[in-house]
Amino acid sequence: xxxxxxxxxxxxxxxxxxxxxxxxxxxxxxxxxxxxxxxxxxxxxxxxxxxxxxxxxxxxxxxxxxxxxxxxxxxxxxxxxxxxxxxxxxxxxxxxxxxxxxxxxxxxxxxxxxxxxxxxxxxxxxxxxxxxxxxxxxxxxxxxxxxxxxxxxxxxxxxxxxxxxxxxxxxxxxxxxxxxxxxxxxxxxxxxxxxxxxxxxxxxxxxxxxxxxxx
Length: 215
Known about the structure:
Structural class: mainly alpha
Shape: elongated
Number of domains: 2
CATH superfamily of the largest domain: Hypothetical protein, domain 2
Oligomer: single chain
């Protein structure tokens, strides 16, 4: 099977099984999505969804969060990973959005990556989910699945290299969905420690490139 055929097989399966797909994070506006994505770094979406209802009731937008002290923010998010640094990032991020972007989350990569706590992956998630842009966010799940299924070369040894190769081979109009397809496959089937190969639709075509597949 050629790489082109592999992409076609995998993408057609996902398109049939999950035609409508989006993030599992819960949010009410673009700012809340940004906060949830920042909090989700090295933490599960399930945990974040347990934390954010109270957080968003207290801080529904950037203006509300920009006026809070870091210690108060910490109390709302202390059960997530790295709560001290994330509280600091969220406070400064909200302040910058209010001061430099008139309270609105920017919609482009360069401006998003100016925000504290926001890297390329987070910026790409916001662009795709909130603004419908054709961006591919590469987290640990996407990185792992892309390597194991042979969608990217072994030399694609950074998230950015994986992103470039995926974008080159996936039709632009389905790139945002493809991010979620690969992520969910990695989260529930092609897991890090014990991949569920017997349950996987791609088992018969999977080269099982496990070595070096972890970020």
